[in-house]
Amino acid sequence: MWKDSLLQILIAFLPVSMFMIWYAKPERTRYASVFLSIGCFVAMLLSIRFTIANPGGYVMDLRHIPLIIGSLYGGFLSAALLLVAYAVVRLCEIKQTGALYAFIAFVIIFMPYLFSRIPVFHRSSGSRRLKIVLYLSFALIAFKEMAFLALKPSMFYSNGGIHFVTLAAFDVLFLAVILACVHFTELGMQRVLLQRQLLDVSNKYRNEMRRLQQFIDNTPLIVVFCDSTGMITHVNEMAAKMVSPLGRNDILHRNFIFFARQMNMHVEENPVTRVMRMGIRHTEVLRIGGKTFYTVTCPIKQLPVEGSDGILFIGHDITETQLLKDEVNRMERLSLVGQMAASITHEIRNPMAVIRGFVQLLNERSSPEQQSYFRIVMDELDRANAIINDFLSLAQNRIVEKEPCQLNDLLSELKPLLWADANMRGQSIDMKLSDEMDLLLMNIKEIKQLLLNLARNGMEAMNDKGVLKIETRNMRDMVQLRIEDEGVGIAPEKLERLFEPFYTTKAKGTGLGLALCLSIVERHNGKINVESTPGIGTVFIVDFCKPGRNCW
């Protein structure tokens, strides 16, 4: 009899045991309730299959334990299906009216609990579940006793109350088994919940790491991670592009010095080496690949232990910012020139006009031998006056009057003057004008001054027999002017300062001619660029945007 009872107990513990083995893998936790419900359904059928009746007629049956466990932890659907399966089997077994009444009473007790599973009770605490288990257990025990009394009431009082003791022992066993099953199932569910929380935290961590990785790879910064020995462990997309055609794998696990050389980094000391030696954050503006970068090199702190776990190098391209800064400085210098021109114009030109008048008068009254000296004085006064005029032209900030005209027409008007200058130098001019040329809004006086300045600069840069090429192109959105000489060219380090006021490459230049040209071009919604190769020549390219077009 006790062996049969042990079999019933093992069957009752079957779904709990299988559940504790099954949820060991985290990916299975999402199906924990389903698996437990299936296990309880199988255990209930096995318990019914191996039902035991003692010689006195009492039935040893623990089918209610899987029913309770599955209802508690399987959800509403599981509780409903288990109740239906139990009812079908139980109705087939009932042969006495008392047993039928006991079954109906059990269903009436169970139904409120069944509907309470939607869905708040499913998330209730373990203590409340324990109260419900006790309630259902005592209810089941009471109805089993009622059924037994209805079937054979005389057995309780025969043989000195042995059957009553047996029934009481079974009730205690039933209560102990159900409490043990609930305890271990509750532990399992808590572990499932912890695994789910751990899985959620792991997924969030992976997602955050993925977002961080995407941010590092897609950020418009050079990002390089090095270990504590200076070996590269990770580079982002921007850093990989800087060493093209080398790939990411070609620079990983290489020293940072190799990466710096591949980027043409101009630096006195390797920044990673400096941080490794000093252990503090280092910032520096470097020239990398012909561009200007603001770089930050800092140690990666190892927490919670003090010390460096590696080196982080970040480079921000500030080339455009530097160009804007240079442009602001240039505008400030132009403003200073304007203030100077406005303040000294009347103070200088009037005395100079008086001086020139008297020099000219003395020249007329002087002997022929001295007239050459007076002519030199007047030439220098005229040159000083021309410089003052350049100051005024450069500093003017008024709105110029413009009218529609063709660039080719202005060049045609200036052609005789340009040829005359070229012949005096022993040079020639090759002029190629576009057949079709759109009209531009121009101030004719300023554009002529621009053309003369650029052409004469080209002539002055060439030796005898040089050819000055002047070309116009009619493009879709702009009109382009190209003036190319065969001079000595301009060094790259001088090109950046070419349009600064007072900066000149000529021995007798004032440094205002190209600054004046730039001012004129900007007032006509244009841009001027210079391409020069030392020893070959220089090309000045001026682009004028056509009216109604958005070129820049």
Automatic annotation (TrEMBL):
The protein's Enzyme Commission number: 2.7.13.3
Keyword tRNA-binding attributed: no
Keywords (A to Z) from UniProt: ATP-binding, Kinase, Membrane, Nucleotide-binding, Phosphoprotein, Transferase, Transmembrane, Transmembrane helix, Two-component regulatory system
Uppermost EC category: transferase
Catalytic activity line of the entry: ATP + protein L-histidine = ADP + protein N-phospho-L-histidine
TM segment ranges: 6-24, 31-52, 64-88, 100-120, 132-151, 163-185
Domain Histidine kinase: 343-544
Keyword Transferase assigned: yes
Name assigned to this protein: histidine kinase
